[in-house]
């Protein structure tokens, strides 16, 4: 029978055998799959695993530094690359959701390729692909789709010519979490909500500016920290905030304001294919809305999304 302990023993032995003392590069996203894949490989080959964690400037507030610290604390050989301005420059003036995804995917490839070239004589590309990614032609986890559409024309970037190693490709998500726990990865990391590869870019409707990213990071942090404080985080499958491309009239003191509207979204789901909005307590929504409006300059109205998927998607773009 399958147990996490046996899986770890077997896989570590197989990886040692397959890789020997060659070098492996892996892109960390901060999510569960890439983190578990990294720790597993690290057990097998130690410092020959080179991890790269890219800040695309579209992560949650403080996420880049806190997750990087966490990875270092886990003993991983990880390089944090702050490429925020490269991504934000590439996105300037773009409003179309699919174009945003393409730009982000392409920029990620360029940044990752540059970094992979810095490692001398790397032989393998490791990925945190899991079984649902293998069977579904379209993965919800990352830029794989965009990579293919873009680079068929100009030829593959060098890192994509590496031999691929995917130690989790036979596992379902719950098995990945159990393997992660077996490897001693913290529950906080293993229980993290899914977060889309394009990050806040697809939660800022319309074009993206550094100021809009900053506003949304503040709003999102108040919402997510509130969910944790109220012990609601683990009851929600995914949550986040959307910055809407409309302004509405408000009043502050005896002045009228004309500022942004944000929408909060929290859903229950098992795989993201269908989802229901979560009936969060009114007292929580009230506290969260007050905090957002009082603390985040530029926002004067908060709404809560009560749409199910289908027909509404989880993200607004
Ligand atoms: P939707 O909005 O399609 O989202 O209901 C379903 C799940 O997929 C995530 N999502 C993405 N993840 N790149 C990703 O890595 C993307 O372009 C992307 N679009 C949506 C979304 O966060 C949800 O978990």
Automatic annotation (TrEMBL):
Pathway: Purine metabolism; GMP biosynthesis; GMP from XMP (L-Gln route): step 1/1. Residues 2-192 form the GMPS ATP-PPase domain. ATP binds at residues 29-35. The keyword Acetylation does not apply. It catalyses: XMP + L-glutamine + ATP + H2O = GMP + L-glutamate + AMP + diphosphate + 2 H(+). Keywords: ATP-binding, Glutamine amidotransferase, GMP biosynthesis, Ligase, Nucleotide-binding, Purine biosynthesis. It comes from the Bacteria. It is an enzyme of class 6 (ligase). The keyword ATP-binding applies. Its EC number is 6.3.5.2. Catalyzes the synthesis of GMP from XMP. Homodimer. This is GMP synthase [glutamine-hydrolyzing]. It comes from Psychroflexus planctonicus. The gene is guaA. The chain holds residues 193 to 509 of 509 of the full protein.
